[in-house]
């Protein structure tokens, strides 16, 4: 166990999971965050969904990530005295004949079986347009991301390990033995700074393909429906009585927080083709998802700077994957465990 602490830069889903992993092992750390009002993790809807996308495939290594996420967030909830992880019903409605045909082909595949609910969804036809032709998923969940981030931050602040600062890469000096920042020595620095890493001078070669995304806040009378619904867009009933609807993917964008009007209009149109009851959009949040080429998270140390580590590329799966990914990186740094070749920055980044 290192006597010197580890420096984590960024308190999004990646940095928060890293901090908890270190705390669980009793390893000292400092976590630093810019404390921006709007970040990707703060905007995230927190959905954890096994069968996704137009191709109706089971998300990569879902069972492994989900098992770890379930245990991790339950433990966090117990420590924080605040539950933040909730299993949720999830109904996927099929859009058109092509999707229905695909579904009939895929529904018997062995990898789908653990995630298919045996009962049909039985939706209220007064609330939902075309409620037939859908299926319910099992092992879906919702992470209350803002609560998880804020209560974790408060916990770390009470320990004296959370600091607000905009860390400049030039101010973090590393050598073979460790890292120095703000007059303090660390064994490693882990950059977990989301899409801002695109501008990091040591990491400019990582093939980011980040995408801006928007989530709407919506008011509609769902007549008690509590499941997540998805056709063309997803709709999440929120405990505060409102709904979240999303999300857009903008692969070309300028600023991080102002969405393109046509993307928002398309999202609203998708929402109206899903909901039969009147819906009012009362808010909107936009941020950039850190995506790396091939939609793969990457981690590890910099090839020429062994004390400089990296965890990024959580894409649209940060809630699901960050607990397992953070554990894997910490075991690599502290125990010398080999990284999964598919996630190893040094094998896949260039
Ligand atoms: C619209 C939208 C909807 C989404 N919905 C979901 C969903 O339903 N489910 C899901 O799992 N995921 C969802 N995501 C994706 C999820 O948000 C990301 O996977 C996740 O937030 C990425 O976390 P991160 O910690 O890597 O990055 P970030 O959240 O960007 O965190 C990085 C942190 O580092 C800080 N930082 C950066 N540079 C510095 C610096 N130099 N010094 C100090 N601090 C710094 C930033 O301020 C920030 O707090 C969604 C994303 C968007 C945009």
Structural topology:
Elements: E1 6-9, H1 13-25, E2 29-33, H2 40-43, E3 47-48, E4 51-52, E5 57-58, H3 62-80, E6 85-87, E7 90-93, H4 97-106, E8 134-137, E9 141-143, H5 145-159, E10 162-164, E11 173-174, E12 179-181, E13 184-186, E14 188-191, E15 211-220, E16 228-230, E17 234-237, E18 243-246, H6 261-274, E19 279-289, E20 298-302, E21 305-312, H7 318-335, H8 345-348
Parallel strand pairs: 1-2, 1-14, 2-10, 7-16, 14-21
Antiparallel strand pairs: 3-9, 4-5, 6-9, 7-8, 11-12, 12-13, 15-18, 15-19, 16-17, 17-18, 20-21
Helix pairs in contact: 1-5, 1-7, 3-7
This protein binds flavin-adenine dinucleotide.
Give your account of this protein's structure.
This protein has 350 residues and is α+β, with helices and mostly antiparallel strands. It folds into two domains: 156 residues, FAD/NAD(P)-binding domain, CATH 3.50.50; 129 residues, D-Amino Acid Oxidase, subunit A, domain 2 (D-Amino Acid Oxidase, Chain A, domain 2, 2-Layer Sandwich). It binds flavin-adenine dinucleotide. Flavin-adenine dinucleotide binds next to α1, β2, α2, β15 and β19.
């Amino acid at each position: 166990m290192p006597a010197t602490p580890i420096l984590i830069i960024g308190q999004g889903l990646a940095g928060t999971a890293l901090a908890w992993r270190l705390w669980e092992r009793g390893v000292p750390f400092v976590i630093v965050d810019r404390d921006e009002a709007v970040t990707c993790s703060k905007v995230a809807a927190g959905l954890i969904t096994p069968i996704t996308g137009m191709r109706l495939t089971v998300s990569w290594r879902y069972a492994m990530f989900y098992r770890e996420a379930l245990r991790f967030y339950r433990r966090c909830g117990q420590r924080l005295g605040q539950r933040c992880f909730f299993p949720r019903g999830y109904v996927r409605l099929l859009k058109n004949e092509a999707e229905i045909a695909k579904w009939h082909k895929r529904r018997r595949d062995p990898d789908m079986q653990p995630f298919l609910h045996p009962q049909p969804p039985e939706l209220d036809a007064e609330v939902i347009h075309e409620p037939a032709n859908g299926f319910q998923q099992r092992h879906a969940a919702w992470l209350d991301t803002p609560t998880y981030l804020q209560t974790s931050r408060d916990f770390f602040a009470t320990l004296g390990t959370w600091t607000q600062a905009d860390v400049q890469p030039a101010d973090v000096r590393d050598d073979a033995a460790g890292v120095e920042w703000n007059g303090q020595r660390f064994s490693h620095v882990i950059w977990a700074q989301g899409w801002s890493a695109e501008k990091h001078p040591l990491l400019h070669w990582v093939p980011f393909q980040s995408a801006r995304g928007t989530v709407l806040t919506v008011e509609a009378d769902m007549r008690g429906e509590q499941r997540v619904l998805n056709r063309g867009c997803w709709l999440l009933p929120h405990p505060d009585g409102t709904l979240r609807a999303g999300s857009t993917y903008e692969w070309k964008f300028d600023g991080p927080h102002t969405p393109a009007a046509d993307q928002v209009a398309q999202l609203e149109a998708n929402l109206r083709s899903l909901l039969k009851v009147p819906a009012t959009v009362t808010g909107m949040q936009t941020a950039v998802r850190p995506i790396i080429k091939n939609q793969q998270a990457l981690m590890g140390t910099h090839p020429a700077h062994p004390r400089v580590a990296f965890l990024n590329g959580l894409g649209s799966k940060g809630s699901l994957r960050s607990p397992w990914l953070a554990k894997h990186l910490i075991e690599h740094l502290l125990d010398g465990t080999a990284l999964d070749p598919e996630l190893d920055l040094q094998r896949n980044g260039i």
